Amino acid sequence: MSNLFCDQVSRSYPKRPLLEACLVALLLILAAFPDVLFNGASLRLTDQVTGAVMGLQKKSVYPIPMGTDWWGGYNDSGGATYQSDPMIQFMAHTLRNGESPYWNPYSAAGALGPEALVDQKFSALTVVSALFGGSSLSFNIAIMIALYFGVFFIYRTVREVFGLSSIAAASAATFYLLNGYITANLGSNVTQSYLYIPVCLYTALVLIDRLSVLTWSMAVLAFALFFSCTFMPTTITGLLAIGLIVVGCLIASIQTGKYSIKQGFFVLAVLATSVLASGLLLAPLYFPFLENLKSLGTLDDYSKRIFWGLRFPNALASFYTPSYLFESYNAMEPAAAFWDDAGSITGNSVFHSGVVAIALASCAFSARLKHFKWLVSLCALGGLFIVVRLFDPVWIHWLFSYLPIVGNIGSQYWWPVIMLAMVVLVGFGVNNLQQRDFYLLPYIVFMAILVASLVYLFNLFGLHAPALEYKTNSLYFIVATVVLMSVVVLTLKYVPRTAKCSGAVFLVVLITLFVELLGWGKMSRFERSDVFDKMPVAIQFVKDNIGHYRTLNFGQGGLDPELGSAYQIQEVSTMNQGNLPAFNDFFYSTFNLANTQRIGYDARFAPRGSFPTFMLIQDKPNANSINWEAVDVLGVKYVLLPVAYSAYKEELKRVGFVEAYESLRTVVMENTKVLPRAFSVRMAERPDNNSAKLPPGFRNTLVPAVIETYRNSKVVLSGDVTEESLVFLSDNWHSNWSALLNGKKAPIIKVENTFRGVIVPPGHYTITMEYQPKSLSWALGCSLLIVLLLISLGLYSKRTDELLRERLAAFH
């Protein structure tokens, strides 16, 4: 492709850009992940948790400086462990058995499928990994390929589109790969969309440079990859980051005379159509989501979220490094972790950029390369604006309070905007240093901020145990990097005749950037364990004996949250967002836990907790109230307890449970009074408004129904009744479930406001229940139309390209 700024940097334009990008991406991936590529380490967070619990071997190749254990460098491993990793196994099972992914019967008495969003059921990474069995190896291969192409397209963007030097492109690619945002969330559902931003950015800029059917189609497919990631906060902020850079480049193309202002708007409109087409291509994902916005309460959930800002100036030093007077992420000390009024330090998450990267980015402004001014300025201002947003001053809090959804995105999810802006600034900073064309004042300001923030924190927090030696060495390293960058910057600014050694200088800078980011990433990883194929013995016992019944898991001693979806074991609780509000009401009325045992409890904003789960339950039966008759109705056959929970073990025996199995970690208690999952009961009167209650004393007269088929989206029940009866199934009701009674349509009514029931006449009955989103047919049609459009445009590309050129020329 042609270079947008070829008149400015033609001497830097690569002769073999594709080969150069392939080699640089390969070298960076090999250098950053030798443990994964050659030593059997895993990027899957479930493997890290399993490795820690089981005492498996760490597979680090480099000596990783750490003040804590493996988890210290991570920000939030729960999103993968309890959401996206189990959903890969769910999708692997679904694809292998030809079932529908739109209903998950294994979570919370039945939950929605991809509409859950956060578990990323339809993401490219999930689907590819699931297609190859969902093993740890398939996951690692899929994520390594995504990382490789992320680096590949960042390098091509900086080298080809911006026309910067190879060392500048390599520096930008290094920062993209190893900045704190990605290393602290690597393998989590949070950063999946980040992996596809580079290909979207590259194809969008190629489209701007050269309008054609090919470039438009490339952009459609690239953004489809991006939008397959449904963790909405980072998908939204990632799209904003792409838009920031695209607008900067488009303004540059107008300044160079490539386009007029009208033509620029036309090109932007064409790009917008490619983004829209990518969304329509994924209509089977997004139409059901839009359809279920109300039933899931997604908008209401997001609108109630509270933005927790960072502490000023406490958090400033964390932008440079996660390790100094205290550590960041999961390694943070209690006094530095909380954001109440008791002397906390940082508040929420601050993902580091590194001293070297900030120093390089501060040199991004140039006096001579005027066509880059808007691009660099937008990246700098956009990144700084989001940084200010994270501290949440009054004026910006007021501004964002009027923005729906976006205004409630948490501070930990805004980092794609900052990091992508930094990628561009690092590239331009290195290029400007090579050309000895940069302003010194920004560098002085940013290094002064680091020094001042460290002095402030030392006076506030002090230098003390734990990990005192580690913290001291971290401070020495910070000082060394500041000194190194100061020598480089000042020498290039004021010492003439440094051209002969400039290559070696920038190689040292690049290596220092790599070492700093790799070291602060603290990527100490365990071996691949394939825990989903080698389930614990207690879980294997449950799976072999549970049939269609359900489990209830206490604490983390057995079936950890959402692992039921991975093992195809139905569970009552959930750590996902596909669960239905009506079931939540039933759950919280059945299980009234003490506030300290509710995950995410907040008296003002989440009085019931974040999720219906027993993850934090303590061995204190007297502190909680459980309706055991409702547990019977739910079809809970087994309760899994940590072996140390002796008080609950006795409580369960008191209410009719017996010990069925015990392993080193888990006690399995069996419910001797569990009700059948499906049964018929006589009704005193026909229910009104498609809603019913189980009649008093129904346990004494119920007749079990036969579950002939039980699949994700299809259930077949059969039985015999002597009079008109209600056939009850303890699965969640949703309007997208339909029923055939003896081959004829029949309504499904709500029972106990959340379960399913069908009224049947006397005699033999066969009930077939099936689930399908109402919008799925339209969605598949839209997706097919986009595919046909892409094919048709390809067949008539010459004529279409001519029309595009004619239309573009008309706006001159």
What brief labels describe this structure?
812 residues; alpha+beta; Maltose phosphorylase, domain 3; six-stranded mixed β-sheet; five-stranded mixed β-sheet; 20 strands; 49% helix
Give a description of the structure:
- The protein is of the alpha+beta class and 812 residues long.
- It has 3 domains: 6-521, no CATH class; 537-671, no CATH class; 678-771, Maltose phosphorylase, domain 3.
- The chain is 49% helix and 11% strand.
- The protein is built from 31 helices and 20 strands.
- It has a 6-stranded mixed beta sheet with strand order 11-18-19-15-10-12, with no helix packed on it. Strands 4-3-7-9-8 form a 5-stranded mixed beta sheet.
- Helix 10 (197-209) runs antiparallel to helix 11 and helix 13 (261-281) crosses helix 30 (776-795).
- It is globular.
In summary, what is this structure?
With 812 residues, the chain is of the alpha+beta class. It is 49% helix and 11% strand.
pLDDT < 50 runs, ≥5 residues: 5-11
Q: Estimate the mean pLDDT confidence.
A: 91
> How many separate helices?
31
Please identify the oligomeric state: single chain
Our Rg estimate from Cα atoms comes to: 29 Å
User: What characterizes the major β-sheet?
Assistant: 6 strands, mixed
Write the layout of secondary structure elements.
Blueprint: H1 6-9, H2 17-32, H3 34-38, H4 45-54, H5 78-96, E1 103-104, E2 111-112, H6 124-131, H7 136-161, H8 166-178, H9 180-185, H10 197-209, H11 213-227, H12 232-255, H13 261-281, H14 283-291, H15 293-296, H16 298-303, H17 334-337, H18 355-361, H19 373-391, H20 394-400, H21 415-434, H22 441-460, H23 468-494, H24 502-521, H25 537-545, E3 550-553, H26 563-567, E4 570-571, H27 581-590, E5 591-592, E6 625-626, H28 628-633, E7 636-642, H29 646-654, E8 657-662, E9 666-671, E10 678-682, E11 691-692, E12 703-704, E13 706-711, E14 714-721, E15 725-732, E16 737-741, E17 744-746, E18 749-751, E19 755-760, E20 763-771, H30 776-795, H31 797-810
Helix pairs in contact: 2-7, 2-8, 5-6, 6-7, 7-8, 7-10, 8-21, 8-24, 10-11, 10-12, 11-13, 12-19, 12-21, 13-30, 14-30, 18-21, 18-23, 19-21
